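Researcher: We are triaging several targets before committing to wet-lab work. For this one, the compound of interest is zinc ion. I'm pasting the protein sequence and the ligand SMILES. What I need is the predicted three-dimensional arrangement of the protein with the ligand bound, expressed as structure tokens, so it can go straight into our comparison scripts without reformatting.
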Amino acid sequence: MTLLPLDFVDSQQTAELREDEYWDGDRRLIYCTTCHTPRQQYLVIAGNRVRLRCMCACQEKASEGMKKDREHWKFLNRVAQNRAVGLTDPELQRCTFENDLGYNKKQMDIARRYVQNWEDFRENSVGLLLWGGVGTGKSYIAGCIANALLDKGVPVMMTNFPRVLNKLTDMYSGDRTAYIDSLKSFQLLVVDDLGVERNTEFVIEQVYHIVDSRYRSHLPLIVTTNLSIKETKSPEDLAKKRIYDRILERCAAVQVNDQNIREINKRINMEKAAKLLIGGENEETEEI
Ligand SMILES: [Zn+2]
């Protein structure tokens, strides 16, 4: 029970009655007319028996509800902050399971299971390697996982290798280490487009640092790549092998190459445009 300050003495009890209260002469306590539980209690403080205000059952319930509302509001605020920090590309915020058009059903089911079993994957620091041709929807799938986990309150960062490498190129050595370390504050790191980076010693070293940092801190990593699994498993370059081995050790490889979604979407958009321009179904949409 929550105590309210001592607000009257015994002889004045009836004068303190509020509209929704009554005085129980037997128990010598004020009661609530709604729930019929006491709004007062006796306590012994410093040797004196005192009567203090307390909350009745319905007041407790209302206060609990307000507390829950406040906590929920705080949670939503945190989710919004995490999303603003972790998904800076607004396009990514549209990648959700709800918006999925169903092109990669099998892979989307895997993504859903990843989210459902997140605590286990997090515990075992297991991520995913989504691999397949250009435009097959790998980033979309990764984005769905990122958004769904952000909704659960998990801090997630989704970026791509070219963007991170650009950032690191402009930094001094110490700042680079600090930046890579700062990525540890995200329980999940999703990095798009492994393999499109330039093949310089500096770049390969930075990619290794990012991947290795996740590995050493036992934090999961999701990577997407246009490289085939064969290229990832046996690259010609030894420095790259070091990176890919780390990834393959902790990321379950999922092939995404059923169809080129970008091409399909382009065709659908052009068909829509053609209908608007020509009107109705038309055989000549290809000419547009
Ligand atoms: Zn009550």
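Researcher: Any quick observations?
Model: The longest strand covers residues 188-194.
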